[in-house]
Structures are given as structure tokens and as C-alpha cells.
Design goal:
- This protein is of the alpha/beta class and 533 residues long.
- Helices cover 32% and strands 21% of the residues.
- The protein has 18 helices and 22 strands.
- The strands form 4 sheets. A 7-stranded parallel beta sheet has the order 7-14-15-16-17-18-19, with helices on both faces. A 6-stranded mixed beta sheet has the order 8-9-10-11-13-12. A 5-stranded mixed beta sheet has the order 2-6-20-21-22, covered by helices on one side.
- Helix 12 links the parallel strand 17 and strand 18.
- Helix 11 crosses helix 12.
Length: 533
């Protein structure tokens, strides 16, 4: 006679189950929660259950980051880390690249990632000449932290097919200096030749260990689920291989990049195919550029500039892709930061819904950064989910007024989105932004930049609302609210053990709360040093 999974009971001093009321304990069978209630009642119902009592600690549902790039992040871990925490000056950036070049075979690529010129090189981007001098025997490309532009040396430009007579491709721009010479900067789709062939693809033997490192990082921050937005065929193979090996301990909602749309159409695959660990969550498109990179598409020009940003996908192409995803029964997840870009995306969704009504489609605007009252009304009317950045005020706040002026008060508009009744999820866009959810909670609650400047105080939300973004909100964005986001019967037993209560600590202390343990499907996947086995 087969033996079923053993029952377990979990309790703590505080349990925020995101239900009304919050229960003091819950019981599990396998990876599912089967009952909640007083500990004594659960003991009586499951007398053979193992009881895990976390004492005065706090249990919350597992954090769910609706918009990350796990497969890309794993690949970036193989490159030179140029993030502000790793380097702090122009000299250090170039030295790090030079050191990697010295132990890389001549002619092989050297890549740097998470480069932020505003934090490490005085607001002035690296140039191709500097990269030529630092790594004379290698093609070099440095990816800006937002992944919407980067800098290549002369060999990299040559590998991408660019010379001084080249014209910019549609949806992209080639940077030039005052003399008109290419300066090495490639914007948006001008980087496509590098992504799609010029730079050799890493092998699974390279990326699987990097993915393991990534998973440990996420679990240490309390994450149990993420969205992988713009998953490539290579990225999907990586995730599937890790899952097949039993190593994918983080649940992944893979939103495939739009180049894979024809394959999905041919196979008839829709949003939702998969299991509780790895599933297809839709198709991603990119309408404009980046907030922190100053390339998103705006109705009014950037401060002290005539530029309105970059439209990364033509209006015709956008409408075509949204309509095809919509007609295939899937979810369109469209990156749009600027207010003009968001309007274009809503136009495309409205057209698709008029032609083929699907009120349950739950299409998404990824980032949905700069909104106004009219856009909010349209988003609500269409049943669209907003997926704004959670931590960008804290992480990028100091640079935003220089780009957007008073419009910062309409950016990452969590208060306005929630008040308008728009389903809203929490996201980091990691590796483009910090993945620590508790930092994002602080950012949403305080709206304070790193230097203490308050940006858009009227967009502040409560700690419980911020926690909901990364639990129930992200579950809704993926169409998984029936199994994620709450600690209730019928839900997956994904939860985090914290050393303080995020709903009662002072708002500025939210980022300092410690994650002690992370559990996925009632299995502990990470524990801080000193935690009992």
C-alpha cells in the first residue's frame, strides 16, 4: 500500500498569511497547505505530524518577484561584475576588465555587466577607445545595468557589423561623439547582433553552476517564485535542464521573448502550460527603453533635452505581436516605461480586444512607470495588470529628477495604481535592479532615495500593501492566485521566516529585517547560519 506524504505543521509568534483573519498555524501534506487554525486543533487532526515552531519569529508567504531575468542573470554571473558594489571608479572598472582579459584567451570575448555610469564613472560613460586600451586583444562589451544600452570596443563593433558608415537599425541608435565617430555605445535593438550571434553562447556546463549561485542568492532574500521575462530558447533550455535534475528550487513563470512567438503558434502552446515549478507565462515585447538609462518613450521631452526617448518596436509591429499573442490565448507582457509607450501598448491591447474579446486575458504592462489619470482609467478598463518597479526610488532615485523633473511624482505610482483598482505586482527587474524584496518594501513605503530625498510622497503605500505586491499581487499577475500568495488551504506551502515583523517595524528599518529561512513546497531550501536543521 503506497504511503502518502508526511504531514507537517508550521507555527510562529506571528503569521501573516495574507488572509482575513491570519491563522496562528498551518498544516501541509506534500507541497500543499491542507489546513489552518490553532496549533492544538491541527495537532489533534494530524497527530503524527512533525511540528515546526519558529518561536517569536514571523512567517509570511514566500516572496514572488513578478519580473526578473533569472536565465540572463545566471549568464551575467559569468561576466565581470561592474555593479556599484563591486567597483567604485573609472579606474576600477577598467582594471576589472583588464584583469579578466589577461586570463582570457586572445580573441575571446570579455563582457562586463551591471555597469552604472552614474554611480561608478562620474556620469560619463566609458568609450570604445578606453575599452580598446584596456583590452587590446579582445572584443569587449559592457552591458549597462538596465540592459537597454551598452558600450563596445572597436572589435565588438566590427563583430556586430558596424562601421563609421553604418546607419542605426529600426528601434535602435548608434552612439557617436561630437565629430560623428562611433563612440561604442549601442542603444536598444542596435545590440541585437551581439545578442543573436556575434557573442558566443555559453554552454549548459557553464550556466548550470551559475544558476545554482543565483538560486542561493534569491532564497537568501526570501524569494520562492520569480518571473523570467524575455526568456530565450537558450534560457528555457537552462531552466528545463535544472528542473529535470531537481535543482530548480525556485518556481519560475517563464515569459518567452517575442522571437519565439512563431514556435508557440506552431505548437499551439498557451500561457499556463507547465507545472508548479516551471510554466510558460506569456510572451514579452519591448515598446521603449529604460528609466534609469534615460531612453524610455515620453510624451514630453526629457528635462533639458529635446529627446522623447526611443520607441524600440514600431507601432505596426507592436499591434501585430499583441494581436497574435492575444488570439493564441496567451498573455501579452509588454515592457513600457514612458507615458507615450504605455499609451501605445494600451492602443494595441484595445485593438486586440475589439477584434477578439477576451476579458480574462490579463495582459500586462511591464514596468508601467510613468502614468497619469487617463492612462490609469484605460488600464483599469482593460483589466490590464501593472508590474512597476518596487525598489527604483531607493536604488535609482538620485538620478531620476535630472531626467524627469516633477514627473517623478507619477513614476512607480503604486498609490495611484492601487487606488484606481488596478491589479499591481511587485518586481525588481533583476539584474537591472536590486532583488532584495525587503529593500523594495522600504522604497514603496518611504519613497526615499539613497540620500534620504523623498520623491513623490503621495505615492507611499502601507507596509501591508507593499507586502501584498510581492505575494498576492505577483501571484495574480501570473494567473496563479489560486495557488500562490497566501498561506491557506489549497495553496502551495511556500513561506519565509523573518526575524522581525515587516508590518510593525519602523518603515526605514524594513530593509534591515533578516531572512532566517526560506521554504518552498514545505521543504527548506535555505537557512541563515546558526539556524537549526
Amino acid at each position: 500500500m503506497p504511503i502518502g506524504p508526511a504531514a507537517q505543521i508550521f507555527t510562529a509568534g506571528v503569521v501573516h498569511a495574507m488572509t482575513e483573519p491570519d491563522p496562528p498555524a498551518f498544516a501541509t501534506l506534500g507541497e500543499w497547505i491542507v489546513a489552518t487554525g490553532p496549533l492544538a486543533d491541527l495537532r489533534a487532526t494530524f497527530p503524527a505530524a512533525t511540528v515546526h515552531d519558529f518561536g517569536d519569529r514571523v512567517l509570511v508567504p514566500g516572496f514572488n518577484d513578478a519580473h526578473q531575468h533569472p536565465s540572463s542573470a545566471a549568464e551575467q554571473l559569468l561576466s565581470v561584475d561592474l555593479s556599484p558594489g563591486a567597483v567604485s571608479s573609472r579606474a576600477e572598472v577598467l582594471a576589472a576588465l583588464r584583469e579578466r582579459a589577461e586570463r582570457t584567451p586572445a580573441g575571446s570575448w570579455v563582457q562586463g555587466s551591471r555597469y552604472d555610469h552614474t554611480k561608478t564613472t562620474g556620469g560619463v560613460a566609458l568609450t570604445r577607445d578606453e575599452l580598446d586600451a584596456a583590452c587590446p586583444g579582445h572584443p569587449v562589451f559592457v552591458w549597462q545595468i538596465g540592459m537597454h544600452w551598452g558600450i563596445g570596443n572597436t572589435a565588438a563593433l566590427r563583430a556586430a557589423g558596424y562601421d563609421e558608415g553604418s546607419s542605426a537599425p529600426g528601434g535602435g541608435t548608434l552612439g557617436r561623439d561630437e565629430s560623428g565617430r562611433l563612440n561604442g555605445i549601442l542603444y536598444e535593438r542596435a545590440m541585437d547582433p551581439l545578442r543573436t550571434g556575434a557573442i558566443p553562447q555559453p554552454t549548459l556546463s557553464d550556466t548550470l553552476p551559475a544558476l545554482r549561485r543565483y538560486l542561493t542568492m534569491m532564497h537568501a532574500a526570501g524569494l520562492t517564485s520569480v518571473g523570467d521575462l524575455l526568456t530565450s530558447a537558450r534560457g528555457l533550455r537552462l531552466l528545463q535542464e535544472a528542473h529535470a535534475r531537481g535543482e530548480l528550487t525556485l518556481r519560475v513563470n517563464a515569459v518567452l521573448g517575442y522571437p519565439l512567438l512563431p514556435a508557440l503558434e506552431d505548437l499551439g502552446l498557451r500561457t499556463g502550460i507547465g507545472d508548479t515549478v516551471l510554466r510558460i507565462g506569456g510572451v514579452k515585447m519591448i515598446a521603449d527603453g529604460a528609466v534609469a538609462g534615460g531612453t524610455c518613450l515620453l510624451e514630453e521631452p526629457y528635462e533639458h533635452s529635446h529627446s522623447h526617448g526611443i520607441q524600440a518596436m514600431s507601432t505596426e509591429e507592436l499591434h501585430d505581436h499583441v494581436r497574435r499573442v492575444h488570439d493564441a490565448g496567451s498573455t501579452a507582457c509588454v515592457h513600457a516605461n514612458g507615458d507615450r509607450a504605455i499609451g501605445l501598448v494600451l492602443d494595441a491591447i484595445e485593438a486586440a480586444q475589439r477584434a477578439n474579446p477576451r476579458p480574462e486575458a490579463r495582459h500586462r504592462v511591464e514596468h508601467c512607470t510613468l502614468v497619469d489619470a487617463e492612462l490609469l482609467k484605460r488600464i483599469k478598463a482593460l483589466g490590464v495588470v501593472a508590474v512597476p518597479f518596487g525598489s527604483y526610488v531607493a536604488f535609482h532615485g538620485e538620478k531620476l529628477p535630472g531626467y524627469y523633473g516633477e514627473r517623478v511624482g507619477r513614476m512607480f505610482a503604486h498609490r495611484d495604481l492601487l487606488d484606481a483598482g488596478v491589479p499591481t505586482a511587485g518586481s525588481s527587474d533583476f539584474p537591472c535592479g536590486p532583488y532584495e524584496v525587503l529593500l523594495a518594501l522600504r522604497s514603496c513605503v518611504t519613497r526615499e532615495a539613497a540620500d534620504g530625498t523623498v520623491l513623490g510622497a503621495h505615492q507611499r503605500i502601507s507596509a501591508r500593501e507593499a507586502l501584498a505586491l510581492y505575494t498576492t499581487g505577483s501571484a495574480c499577475a501570473a494567473g496563479e492566485e489560486n495557488r500562490k500568495g497566501r498561506l491557506a488551504p489549497g495553496m502551495l506551502a511556500d513561506f519565509v521566516v523573518l526575524d522581525a515583523d515587516p508590518l510593525t517595524v519602523a518603515p526605514r528599518e524594513l530593509a534591515g529585517i533578516g531572512v532566517r529561512q526560506t521554504w518552498v513546497g514545505a521543504n527548506r531550501v535555505w537557512a541563515a547560519d546558526g539556524e537549526d536543521a
